[in-house]
Write a structure and sequence with these properties.
With 279 residues, this protein is an all-alpha fold. 82% of the residues lie in helices and 0% in strands. The longest helix is centred in the first third of the chain and has 34 residues, at 42-75.
């Protein structure tokens, strides 16, 4: 999904595509993304186009107005008063947006998956295996220290996208954060292997509607139910740690950073309103 989102961002930033253009042609982006994994038939492409059109209309009419209202609320917040309780509340709200979208898309994904041939299933599994192999090849040679440095750079880049340049205090908080993180790459590599087995089993029974529907919903909406005990423990620890340090970093924001965040939020609101108006 990162590639698809990256393509959308690149289109806006470098080519000058409008938000309306992207939203009206999002079926093309989805098909292009999926064909990185499997060659689609004309019938499947048409089903995807129809499904995305229906999903986009619902998303534009029902969900995006929620995002606009949420952004308006975020624009009024005082970073210095931000609390851990508020952080968890915001995370639940954002998670609900994802859950709503996945639940709405789930029935169409099931119908399209049921039409996959055995050859397409093999092709999909091969593509997933190759991507997992690249992930493994990237991280297995790295020491814990190198992985922590990678964590630091990724988080720093993400924060600076929203806040602008970080202060010395915020960088110190970030260093403390990454030093306390539990490295989970080995567990994630094992998890990828486990999920390939689950996915292969699921696709082998794609015509068994009751089984597929039940298992696919769990995979889509409750992915942590497939985690190993060790990954669950480390993931819960890291989530609690990230919440605490993110709150501290937000509370340490400067007036300039606050303006930067609000400017970013206003840009996102403008894009959301463009999508609503494009109907």
């Amino acid at each position: 999904m990162k590639k698809w989102l990256g393509l959308l961002i690149l289109c806006v930033a470098l080519v000058g595509c409008s938000t309306q253009f992207i939203y009206r042609n999002i079926d093309w982006f989805v098909i292009d993304y999926l064909e990185d994994y499997v060659d689609l038939t004309d019938q499947q492409e048409q089903m995807i186009s129809d499904s995305v059109a229906h999903l986009s209309q619902w998303h534009r009419q029902v969900e995006i107005p929620k995002y606009v209202a949420h952004i308006d609320q975020l624009l009024t917040m005082d970073p210095s008063q931000f609390s851990l309780e508020e952080f968890h509340r915001q995370r639940r709200i954002i998670a609900s947006y994802t859950q709503n979208l996945l639940r709405k898309a789930e029935p169409d994904i099931e119908r399209i998956t049921a039409l996959m041939s055995d050859k397409q299933v093999d092709e999909l599994m091969s593509s997933v295996r190759q991507r997992h192999s690249k992930f493994k090849q990237k991280f297995v040679p790295m020491s814990d220290e190198q992985i922590r440095k990678y964590y630091y750079e990724q988080i720093s880049d993400n924060l600076e996208d929203w806040l602008g340049e970080l202060t010395d205090k915020q960088r110190q908080l970030l260093k403390e954060w990454q030093s306390e993180m539990k490295v989970t790459k080995p567990e994630w590599i094992d998890q990828q292997t486990r999920m390939r087995i689950e996915l292969k089993t699921l696709l082998a029974r794609r015509l068994d509607h009751d089984y597929f529907s039940r298992q696919f919903e769990t995979m889509l909406l409750e992915p942590e139910s497939f985690f190993s005990a060790e990954l669950k423990t480390k993931n819960a620890y890291n989530q609690a740690l990230s919440a605490r340090y993110l709150v501290d970093i937000i509370r340490a924001m400067t007036p300039k950073q606050t303006e930067h965040v609000r400017s970013e939020l206003k840009d996102w609101k403008e894009m959301a309103l463009e999508v609503i108006d494009s109907e």
